[in-house]
Automatic annotation (TrEMBL):
Family in the record: Belongs to the class-III pyridoxal-phosphate-dependent aminotransferase family.
Record region (Disordered): 1-37
InterPro entries listed in its UniProt record: Aminotrans_3, Aminotrans_3_PPA_site, Class-III_PLP-dep_AT, PyrdxlP-dep_Trfase, PyrdxlP-dep_Trfase_major, PyrdxlP-dep_Trfase_small
Pfam families documented for this protein: Aminotran_3
Protein name, per record: Aspartate aminotransferase family protein
SUPFAM superfamilies: PLP-dependent transferases
PANTHER family the record matches: AMINOTRANSFERASE CLASS III (PTHR11986)
Keywords, alphabetical: Aminotransferase, Pyridoxal phosphate, Transferase
Highest taxon listed in the record's lineage: Archaea
MF-aspect GO terms: transaminase activity
Length: 454
C-alpha cells in the first residue's frame, strides 16, 4: 500500500441501515454466549448484538444491520475498524516475526522512537519506554512498580471517580466501590483525593480545583495526612469511566507543582485519552503538563493488544527483569501502532478530532431537552450528563436514549459515577457527514425520551 487511504473510503457507505435490532442471528449468538462464557461478560448485557465486520466508523452485525459506531471499543479503534493501512502492516508482520519477547526488532525500536518523538512536553526526546502485558492495566501495574522502585516508597495517591483498570494494583488506584467490594483487601497505602468536578460538586471551577489540590497537599505534606511515604500521584487528565470529567484550568498544573514541591512522581493515565483522542496526541498537552510517567494502551494498537509506560529517563533505575510480560514483544501490535500514528499524521486527525468534537458538543448543547445537565469533553472524547427535573442523576434516561439510538443504527455507551453520562467516543476517522447523521439520531432520541417524562 503506497499511501494511507482517505478517511472517506474506510466505511460501509450505507450506514446506518438497520431492520430488526437485535436480529434473530444476534439473539442466537447471544444465547450461545450465555451458555458457554463467563457471567462476567458486560457489554452484550446492554447491547445484545453479535458483530461480523467493521469498517472505519461503521460496523455490521450478523443479521446485516449496519451501525455508526460512536464508542469505538471504548476509545480503542481511533483510526477505525479494520483500517487497511494498519491491517496491511499487521498481516505482514504476522507472517514474519509475530513475537520476540524483548529482543531488539525494528518494529519495536521504530515504535519506541516514535513514541518518544510525540511524547508530551519534556518527555519528548528524554524518555524511556517499557512494555509489559497487552492491556492498559498492565501499563498501570508497570507504573506502580516503576514509582516504588525509583522512590523507595510505597504510598500511592489517586482520585475519587478514577478508573485505572482491574488488576490488583490498578484496581487499588481505581475508586469504584461497586466493583471493588468483592475483591478487597487490595494494595495497602492507597489514598484518594477529590477530583475537581464543578457540575457534581455544585461549586465554581476555581473552588473545585482548590479543594482537590488542598486534598493532595494534605496527603503529601501534612504530618497528619496519612501518607508518610508517597511513591507517586496517579491521575487521569480527563476522567473517562468517571463521566468524561474535564478538570478546570489550574488543576493539572497545580498537581504538577505539588509533585515537584514534594519530589513525588506524577503519573498520568493516558490509556483512554491518548493517541489523538482529545485533539492532541495526549490530553496532557492541553494542560501544558509534562508527566514523570504516562500509561498508554487502548488506541495505541488500534485493536491489536498493546500497552506501555513512557517515563522520564531519570526514573530508569530498575535492572533487567524489573518489569516483564510475555507479550512485551508482540511485534504485530507494534507495527499496527506505528501505522496508526502514521495514519493520524497523514490525515491531520488531531485537527479533525478537534473540529468534529466541537460540532458534536455543540449539537448536544443545542438539544431541546431538560435532561442534558452538562456537555463536556475535548476532541472526540465527549460526555453529556443527564439529570431529572430535580437535578438528580438520571441513569435510566441514558439507558433509554442508548436503546433508541441502537434501534436506529447508532451505537453509544454510558458512564459516570451514577451511570448517568452518555459517552460519545467515535473513531477519529468519522466523517462530518456521519457525525451529522448520527447526531440527528442522538438528539432525536434525547428529545423523545424527555417528551415521555413530561
Amino acid at each position: 500500500m503506497t499511501a494511507p487511504p482517505p478517511i472517506e473510503e474506510l466505511h460501509f457507505d450505507d450506514a446506518p441501515n438497520v431492520d430488526e435490532v437485535p436480529g434473530p442471528r444476534s439473539r442466537r449468538l447471544r444465547e450461545r454466549q450465555r451458555a458457554a462464557e463467563s457471567s462476567a461478560v458486560l457489554y452484550p448485557t446492554e447491547m445484545p448484538i453479535g458483530f461480523r465486520e467493521g469498517k472505519g466508523a461503521t460496523i455490521e452485525d450478523v443479521d446485516g444491520n449496519r451501525y455508526l459506531d460512536f464508542f469505538a471499543g471504548i476509545s480503542v479503534l481511533n483510526v477505525g475498524h479494520a483500517n487497511p493501512y494498519v491491517a496491511e502492516a499487521a498481516a505482514e508482520q504476522s507472517h514474519t516475526l509475530p513475537h520476540s519477547l524483548d529482543f531488539p526488532t525494528e518494529p519495536r525500536l521504530d515504535l519506541i522512537e516514535k513514541l518518544e518523538s510525540i511524547a508530551p512536553g519534556g518527555l519528548a526526546g528524554a524518555s524511556r519506554v517499557v512494555f509489559g502485558g497487552p492491556t492498559g492495566s498492565d501499563a498501570v501495574e508497570g507504573s506502580i512498580k516503576l514509582a516504588k522502585q525509583y522512590t523507595g516508597n510505597r504510598g500511592m495517591v489517586a482520585f475519587y471517580g478514577a478508573f485505572h483498570g482491574e488488576t490488583s494494583g490498578a484496581f487499588s488506584l481505581s475508586a469504584d466501590g461497586k466493583y471493588k467490594r468483592d475483591y478487597t483487601p487490595l494494595l495497602a497505602e492507597v489514598e484518594h483525593a477529590q477530583y475537581p468536578y464543578p457540575f457534581r460538586q455544585g461549586v465554581p471551577p476555581e473552588e473545585a480545583v482548590d479543594r482537590a489540590l488542598d486534598d493532595v497537599q494534605t496527603l503529601l505534606g501534612d504530618r497528619y495526612g496519612a501518607m508518610p511515604n508517597p511513591a507517586g500521584v496517579w491521575v487521569e487528565p480527563i476522567q473517562g469511566e468517571g463521566g468524561v470529567v474535564v478538570p478546570p484550568e489550574g488543576f493539572m498544573s497545580g498537581l504538577r507543582d505539588l509533585c515537584d514541591d514534594y519530589d513525588v512522581p506524577l503519573i498520568v493515565d493516558e490509556i483512554q485519552t491518548g493517541m489523538g483522542r482529545t485533539g492532541e496526541w495526549w490530553a496532557s498537552d492541553h494542560f501544558d503538563v509534562t508527566p514523570d510517567a504516562m500509561t498508554v494502551g487502548k488506541g495505541i494498537g488500534n485493536g491489536h493488544p498493546l500497552s506501555a509506560t513512557v517515563y522520564r529517563e531519570e526514573l530508569d533505575t530498575w535492572g533487567p527483569g524489573g518489569h516483564t510480560g510475555t507479550f512485551r514483544g508482540y511485534n504485530v501490535a507494534m507495527r499496527a501502532a506505528l501505522r496508526s500514528i502514521e495514519y493520524i499524521e497523514a490525515h491531520d486527525l488531531l485537527d479533525h478530532a478537534t473540529e468534529l468534537g466541537e460540532y458534536i458538543r455543540g449539537r448536544l448543547r443545542d438539544v431541546d431537552s431538560p435532561l442534558v445537565g452538562e456537555v463536556r469533553g475535548l476532541g472526540l472524547f465527549v460526555g453529556a450528563e443527564f439529570v431529572d427535573r430535580n437535578g438528580r442523576p438520571a441513569s435510566d434516561a441514558v439507558s433509554e436514549v442508548r436503546q433508541r439510538c441502537m434501534e436506529r443504527g447508532v451505537l453509544a455507551w454510558g458512564g459516570g459515577r451514577d451511570d448517568n453520562v452518555l459517552r460519545l467516543l467515535p473513531p477519529l476517522v468519522m466523517t462530518r457527514e456521519q457525525a451529522e447523521t448520527g447526531l440527528d439520531i442522538v438528539c432525536d432520541a434525547i428529545e423523545a425520551t424527555a417528551d415521555e417524562r413530561i
